[in-house]
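Shipment paperwork, digital attachment
Item: protein structure file
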Amino acid sequence: MATRTLPDRKSSAGSASARLTPEQLVGAYRTMLLSRRIDDKEVQLKRQNKIFFQISGAGHEAVLTAAGMILKPAYDWFYTYYRDRALCLELGVTPAEMLYEATGAAIDPASGGRQMPSHWGHKAYNIVSASSPTGTQFLQGVGSAEASYRAKLLDITEGFQKDEVVLICTGEGTTSEGEFWESLNTAANLKLPVVYLVEDNGYAISVPVEVNTAGGSISKLVRSFPNFLIEEVDGCDFLASYDVMERAVEYARQRKGPALVHAHVIRPYSHSLSDDETSYRPPAEREADAARDPVTQFPKWLVSEGHATEEELKQILEEVDTIVMAATDDALAQPQPGPETVYFGVYSPDVDPTSEQFDTEDDPQFSGEPTTMVDLLNSCMKDEMRRDPKILVFGEDIADARGIHQQGEGQGRSVHGDARTPEGVRQWARVQLTLSGSQHRWPRDRPGAAWFQARGRGAVLRLHMARVHADPR
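Attachment content:
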């Protein structure tokens, strides 16, 4: 059984949520209801074997809608988790596009019908395609925020906004992944403009939070990280969630450092349709969750405060159901990707690694005097770094003062001087053991990610030179 201690409500007359108009409040309810009704339709479709999988965002709608209202689509960047349906709706993803993903339609903007349902992605809104392995979004998101940080140091403006923020969403269970803690370390060290939203529904599938997380509270565990703003909120309370998200986003946007919002939400449905929560959750706990459901409680507040009438809410429900039905009919009629598209996004359409251009075995051409592998790697990296100032090196013992393997000798000061960071070369070429997932933008005329790895005596050097989005269509 999951135990929860909800934070006190902190909203006041002078809070951000107090400035919301009746139209905005009713609009927030509409997004929450739409999210729930799409979930319900997908549950129905899965039971009819018309879609392949279903995992819902039920119970998470309030804090996600608030986040979507505060952050800026196509300006900020979003690294999501599979329960983030309401966030994506608020950012601009349509019900039809969500159902295209559920049916595996070829026109699905997330992946062209290749991803599982609820693996959100949309190029137009900077929603980066999610991966099935949980926790991969942490290093990717922090790498994205670091790209913003370093672009400013290098006076690079193309493709960047002056105060963009990265949102990384997760459930509380995935905070036990090592990548979460690795990302916190770099976010804190560099004061990166990133907001973590931990959607804590009390269960990592069937494992209660007090078993999965030491002490049962992730926000208490991370409070010792420097430069972080830590907030805790009842994520089923839309107004409180709006206030907390506004503070967290503004903190990051002003470049004060990263923020983490620990939102206590509910999970009124099972983990997915592959799970039956009645086998491990007692009835009393499920009833307590139902009493906090934002989709049923928030409209009651709207009526009691005079922001909407019962008749207006009934009309919204009818409109939402009409939209969902039309989107469902549309999605079910869409063709799935053809077999001729199987290689899309797998191999480069322009570069053939089996071509003569890459054939160095039959007729290798050498120049210069024979030397060691370490010296050759050093020379190769210098050439690449002279060619493009956006390249960064991450790895063991990489520094201008040679390092134990001498692979980093001269890489910083001799190539680019101290301009890459105000702290100088030693910070620029800092030792970083685990941030191999950092991503950096690459010019549009060079699509794709380019990795360079050199393994020697335990050292791993990585150049990761892309933050790109291929159009799945």
